[in-house]
Write the structure tokens for this entry.
Amino acid sequence: MSPLRTPLTVAYEAAASVADDLGLSVADDYGDPAAEERAFTTGAALVDRCGRGAVLVDGPEAITFLNSLLSQDLAVLADGQGTHALLLQPQGKLDTDLRLLRVGDAAWLDCEVGRGNALAASLRRFKIRVKAEVEDRTGDWGSLTLRGPEVAVRVEAAGGPALPAEAHGHIPWGWGTGATRLVRADWPGGPPGADLVGPVGELSGVWTALVAAGFRPAGLSSFEAARVRAGVPRQGLDLDERTIPQEAFLELDAVSFTKGCFLGQELVCRIDSRGHVNRFLRVLQLGEMGIDTTPPAGAGIVVDDKEVGTLTTVARSESGVVALGYVRRAVEVPADVVVRWDGGEAPAVATALPEASGLPERA
């Protein structure tokens, strides 16, 4: 069966080639992958992310309902603020990695491709006598990712507002129906940037305006290379239902240890106070490799002929092959490792995620 297509037709029809992204057909490139990758570090890259899951929680008890479930303290959020948060399983492992934007008394949630329906279902399961409605609007609402040092100036050239200063802060885009929000969304280990979140029909016009203002459309291949270098994990690739937040350093900005109870709190707080996890997500640089010798996701990570981890994402970039993978806690980074798979092996260097660099790791 062919994968579903991104709902942002204007971006899809401009593609030079397409690729499958977690079951969704999206642009792989727009004709110049190298220039698209460079836009993340020297210009302004524009990525179609309208396939992401989108859930609206609205009603007088929407925020208090979500605050009882999610890992972040939502009670402190005002209209126009947002946060990175997690919905955990009762046992403390990941259900959904998400972003929450507070818009009045409503919460706009967006999550990874293919997760919208599951997130809405999980929330409804806990909604008992709560004055809030949960609506899955995946496909009708989406997002655009804007990354690079020229993002702010080119957003204003497209008729948009100045970027919010606060992480996850958001303001109306300012034209169309006014439903689209401009969200501050820097990558911790990468270029500054923003996301636009709103109705797909409105984002189509915004896409056209941004391209006219000098943004370079960037496909999946360059997006993956940029986000892997920045150490940003994706659910469905680097995160799954077995992931403990501390393994991927999600607790650094997605967990409040002072808010009180939330779903799955016991495991996460116990690890923070007196425990440890057995593996950490790492960035791996493999260098130049031919297409036919690039390791696949799932390849083993080896030290002293002993497998100590597994690759989760592999991306090709101008500087060579870069990857994310989990490595056992005992391996101190930076570390020289070997990546091994059926039919090949290659030397690599494993390093800490940029967001976690310099932080002490729990013994």
